[in-house]
Amino acid sequence: MFETNKVVHKGTDYKATQNACKLCSPLGASVAYKGFEGCVPLIHGSQGCATYIRRYLISHYKEPIDIASSNFTQDSTIFGGDRNFKLAAQNIINQYKPKIIGISTTCLSETIGDDVTLFLHELKSEDFDGKTEFVVASTPSYQGTHIDGFHEAVASVVRKFAKKAAPGNHINLFPGFISTEDIRLLKEIGVDFGLETAILPDYSESLDNPVWDTYKRIPEGGTTMEEVEKSGSAKASIEFGTVLNLGKLSGRVKNLNVTKTGAQYLEKQMDVPLVRLPMPIGITQTDSFFEELEKLSGKKTPEKYTKQRGRLIDAYVDAHKYVFGKKAVVYGEEDFVVGMCAFLDEIGIEIALAASGGESGLLEQEILKYCPENGDKITVREGYDFESIKEWCQSNNPDILIGHSKGYYIARELGLPIIRVGFPIHDRIGGQRIKHLGYAGTQELFDKIVNALIEYKQDSSPVGYKYM
Ligand code: SF4
Description:
Largest sheet: 5 strands, parallel
Number of strands: 15
CATH class of the largest domain: Alpha Beta
Number of helices: 17
Low-confidence stretches: 1-6
Bound molecules: iron/sulfur cluster
């Protein structure tokens, strides 16, 4: 069922990816690190890695985003990056005075076999101030996507700081790589249920600040160290995503007993019960999330949300004639694609193609699980790139594309509407403020999709109807 890519070079069986439908692993780790209070991300590798990641994040979040680099040179590539690493760490400590330095490795440093844990040991025994904490995530990009990097970083922070204690009444929410607006939405939901909820990680402030009078080297916000410590005594963890970093390429350890996500670690090592749910997009998946919140809080869903749900159902009915039977192409990170497919299936849109650059080996089975009626009719492609998506669209005439900005050129070339969701959004303002989750996020997505289809029909009509 799966196909990989694309350009076969004459005389070899080498197939090159053209315009990958995934991002680099340390990028995801850097976003996750930004969600812990006082943390500065450090990329152990060449300057180009950090520059590319900064450029991508700044363009999406429209914020100044500092990411340090150990700036490999030719020397460090040959003789090892220990000197550069220690210098980088000292510079960060001197200039930023961070609580944590969140380290991600890169393709280069992993390929030459740099042992960052050993470097840290040496640094501490030489001239280290002892006040800064270090966390290391192994994130070679040839072994996963930005999502693998994201979950590796979160798991590294939890492994390092969580403390086992008698269970309290608070809960942990591991939402995955979602928008800053979605994080704010989840925090509000937690408050409305009366639940003390730690979001791991919470970059809703640090990557989406109010305007500043003066520049702040480390933006405010983020999950506090106390919250991470208390994650080990939570009543439960809710984790969004079923692919996560559990796929065949992710992580370096193939031993299934080794925990890969933060929530999984807390379950195995600290007896914190884990509830794993797909991203709550659409009514069915949001209902599952709210049912868990009802169980954990002992409270009924507040009326505010039952009304949101009711309005959403009403909108589904009103707009069914516009969406039913339309063919969509959905692309992006795997858990996002699974959640989006579940939602589109629910509203009667035919998912013609579900594609991701991820190669977990899990995408098809998860789509089948959450689209039980029509999942077997969906063409699922892992390890796909945008050129392959374009070729597929040229042969199969979909009605709409749903995914991030990197697919815009396909929509433009083929004259199709595109709904921009997920990450990155580089050609619009407000990518960080797109809501995707819960009844409220689904409502916004639904309205956008319906209106894009109406607009397309209206613009393509020789009459230009005023009533559609
Ligand atoms: S893919 Fe590898 S080399 Fe490229 S930016 Fe990411 S870590 Fe650096």
